[in-house]
Amino acid sequence: MYKVAIIGAGKIASGFDAPDSPDILTHAHACRQSPAFCLAGFYDSDLGRAKEAAKKWGCRAYPALEAALSEAEVVICCVPDAYHGQMLMEISNYQPRLVIAEKPLAVSVTEGEAIRRIYHGRIPLLINYSRRFLPEFHSLREEIRQYGKFLKGVGYYGKGVLHNGSHMIDLLGFLFGGVQCLEVFPGEIPDFAGDASKDLALQVQGALFYMLAVDSRAVTVFELELFFEKARVRILDGGTVIEAYETKESAAYQGYYNYALTERRSVNYSQALAGLLDNAQKFLDSGEELMCSLEDGLHVLRLCTQIKEESL
Q1: 136, 155, 191, 274: most buried, per Cβ within 10 A?
Q2: Over the stretch 114-142, which tens digit does the pLDDT of each residue have?
């Protein structure tokens, strides 16, 4: 078993679920459920919070970062966005066999590039853009190759271009292979500290994708609608539902085609962290490719930083 230390004891690390919860919503629960990993303990700058998480999950609370990193083969970095870069630098001094980091990689390209220089060729780094670790999205990526030309799309998100918008940009890159930003529209929504949400026009496979911000202080939304020559795809309810439509000739009007719903599949989003650890195990055991690498995370960071600064 690979010994794991979790750095940061917040919601995604420990708080969203409990050992007896039916769904896996935290890194601690994913470690507990995996036969390949052993959760050694938590480190948090708030020792009381680390102790609370350790008691909940039956492991150790480390009073010092050095103690946590000295023991761990795998380190999971779950600190707030602003501290990702600094913490990943600290972790690199101990050269664990694998580092798993919550997105985003960092909050600036300068930080991201510095992490790349330190980690590249030395320490493998896996970034948690969660939809990459769900089999339904791997299947969708294969299916859309049969749908003909991509015509247009629209997506809705909130809680910051980098913090949550990066999920959508990464998903588009994963599905289509490349994303560019064409325009950042005037106005912004200040719904995440230091990281406003903005309306964007992206280019995906030569077609437009409009990425529109919805104030997360009112409602949480993550949805996409993708139009192709032969099909239409809707990703709904935060990615927990995927609808597929096929083009069919109108029964009433010859020569006119409409999209008809052919499949509505549920996505067990609670399996994303289990999928993340499964990929980590296969990498450690046999060298299987990491599904979301440092380079993937850096690519998204560069684009999101451009958008935030409107320097396109």
Answers
A1: 155
A2: 999 999 999 999 999 999 999 999 999 99
